[in-house]
Amino acid sequence: MTLHAIGVDIGATNLKLALVDSSGVVHSRAMSATPKDPDPKAVVSGIISATTAFWREAQASGFEVAGFGFGIPHFHEGRDWEQKQTNNMPSLEGYPIRPPLAEAFGDSIAMANDVSAAGIAEHMFGRGRGIERMMMVAIGTGVGTCMITREQGLVHFSWDSIGDAGMIIVDPLGRADCTCGGRGCLEALVSGPGIRQRALREIERGRPTVLADVQRAQGDIEARDVSEAARAGDRVALDLMQETGFYLGVALTSYLHIFRPNLFGLGGGVAQAGDLLIEPARQTLERLASPWYLRRLEAIEVAALGKEAAAVGCASLILHPGLYLRADEDPQS
Ligand SMILES: [Zn+2]
Q1: Measured in angstroms, how far is the CA atom of residue 19 from the centroid of ligand 1?
Q2: Which residues in the chain are classed under CATH 3.30.420.40?
Q3: Centre of ligand 1 from the C-alpha of residue 75, in Å
Q4: What is the CATH number of domain 131-302?
C-alpha cells in the first residue's frame, strides 16, 4: 500500500497543506491564512485546527496518514523544537512547539526549515535527483539555504540547518541594511526587497529607464518589474540584474569552497529571472573560484519544483525519514 503523509508549510502569511505520497505526488491540497496573534498558543492552535480539518478530509476520502511534517520560515532547536530567529513570526520566538503538535497528532511528526524542506523535495523529485551534493539557495522576500548530500541527507550543524547562510556578507562596505540587523548580507542585496531598493536608487539618480515609468504608473516597483524590463532590453534594469547576479556569484563562490556542491539549485520568486541572474553569477564564479572546486560543480539551475516544494518536502521527512533525518529525530525510530 502506498504511504501518505501530510506536509504543512507554515508561512508568515499562509499555511499550505498537502497530502503527499512517497513518490512526491500531491493528492489534495489546501491553503488558509496563518493565524496572527501575540500569544504563541493561539497561533499553534490555529495551525493544529487547520491541519486537523485537512487530516479528517483525507481520512474521509480513504487515505491513511502515516504522519505530519511541518515547515517553518525560521529555525528550531532541541527536542521540543524551540523556535529560533523568528523574524517573520515574532510571537513564536523561543516557543517549544513540539509538545502541542505531538498532543494533537502523535509522535509521527517532524519539523524542518521551509527552505530545507523545499530542498529535500528538489533532491528527491526535482533537479537534484541522483546528485551527490546539492545546495539550494531560495531567493524571495529573504534568502534561505540548505545543503543535502546523498551520504548525510540534510546537513545540519546549527539550528538543524547549515545556519543563516543567506546572511553571508557580499558587500564588505556594508552599504545595504539587512532585516537581520546586519549590513551587506546577500539577502540585503539580492532578495526581492533588496533588488527593489537598488532599483529605486537608480530611478532617483535619474538615469533614463522604463522602471521610472513603471513606478509612476503603479506607485511602486518590485523585483519582477526589474527582470521584465531587463528582458525587454532596458539598460538600467540589465545593469541591476547583472549586479544581482554578481552578488549572488560572490556568495556562491564562498558556498562552493565551504560545501563543495555538485549542483546549486536556485528557488524562490527572484530565481525565476533565470539566465539574467545565472549568467553573471556563473561568470563571477569562474573569475573568483578555485578551479579544483569549480571543476566539480556540474550546474547552477532554477529549481524544478514550485510553490508546493516545501509542503512535499515536509511530508517526505515522514515518508523517507532515513534519507534526511538523524536517527534520533526519525519519528519512526
Ligand atoms: Zn542579513
Answers
A1: 34
A2: 4-120, 131-302
A3: 15
A4: 3.30.420.40
Please give the helix or strand (H or E) that residue 103 lies within, else none. helix 98-105
Q: Which of 3.40.50.880, 3.30.420.40, 3.40.50.300, 3.40.1190.20 would CATH assign to domain 4-120? A: 3.30.420.40
Interval between CA 200 and ligand 1 midpoint (Å): 20
- Residue 143 C-alpha to ligand 1 middle, in angstroms? 9
Spatial neighbors of 195 by CB under 8 A, at least 6 apart, are: 223, 226, 240, 244, 270
Dihedrals φ, ψ of 297, to 5°? -85, 115
What's the CA-to-centroid distance between 163 and ligand 1, angstroms? Answer: 12
Instruction: For the full predicted model, state whether its pTM sits above 0.85.
Output: yes
* Residue written as grid cell 540585503: 188
What pLDDT is stored for residue 103 in this prediction? 98
Give the Å distance between the CA of 137 and the centre of ligand 1: 15
Element spanning 288, H or E: helix 275-288
Span from the CA of 18 to the centroid of ligand 1 (angstroms): 31
Q: What is the mean pLDDT of each run of 10 residues along the chain (333 residues)?
A: 92 94 96 94 97 97 97 92 90 97 97 94 95 96 93 85 93 93 96 96 95 96 97 98 98 98 96 97 98 96 93 96 70 62
168 alpha carbon – ligand 1 mean position (Å): 7
Burial (CB < 10 A; 0-12, 13-18, 19+), residue 183, is: middle
Distance 263 CA to ligand 1 centre (A): 24
Centre of ligand 1 to C-alpha 164, Å, is 8
Q: What is the identity of the amino acid at 116?
A: S
In the prediction, which pLDDT does 148 show?
A: 95
Rounded to the nearest 10 degrees, what angle do helices 235-259 and 192-205 cross at? Answer: 140
- Say how far apart CA 69 and CA 113 lie, in whole Å: 11
